Amino acid sequence: MIKAHDVSQGGIHLEFYCHPRCSTCKKAQKWLDGHNISYTFKNLLETSPSKETWIQILSKSDRTIKSFFNTSGNVYRENNLKEKVPNMSIEEAAEWLSSNGMVVKRPLAMDGDKLTVGYKEDIYNQTWL
Questions:
Q1: Preceding omega of 86 cis (within 30 degrees of 0)
Q2: Which residues pair with 110 in a beta bridge?
Q3: How many Cα atoms sit within 13 Å of 34 on the Cβ side?
Q4: What CATH number does the domain located at 13-128 have?
């Protein structure tokens, strides 16, 4: 599913990575729609940002590597990532995040300059308005 709004007014356009059945993703998507923010919906079950993109994100971000991982997910637990993530290099983390969308904390929204991980209305208001 690709969803995009009219950006002819010069607004931002986001890449919006999420799981289609995730309730948090649905709340974030409703917020984006309600604020007429343009985005391309990307299903994390089918695609995650590339390893190279993750390396750029992780290198530029002031967030911890762990903050990009879905720490409550089965894949995280089954692979004992709780023990592995704190010692991961950016390259190792990028490999995990790019190879399995289920380990990515969602939703992930980015426009090339800014990004948000997860959904909190106040953070979306501050970042995307």
A1: no
A2: 15, 115
A3: 9
A4: 3.40.30.10
Domain-wise residue ranges, the chain: 13-128
Integer Cα distance of 79 and 60 in angstroms: 26
Q: How far apart are CA 118 and CA 18, in angstroms?
A: 9
CA contacts within 13 A on the Cβ side of 103: 22
Query: What's the CA gap between 41 and 64, in Å, rounded?
Result: 25
Euclidean distance between the first and the last CA atom of the chain, given in angstroms as a whole number? 25
Phi, psi dihedral angles at 112 (to 5 degrees): 105, -35
Residues 6+ apart with CB under 8 A from 128: 12, 14, 32, 35, 37, 109, 114, 116
Residue-by-residue pLDDT tens, the chain, 129 positions: 333 333 434 578 999 999 999 999 999 999 999 999 999 999 999 999 999 999 999 998 889 999 999 999 999 999 999 999 999 999 999 999 999 999 999 999 999 889 999 999 999 999 999
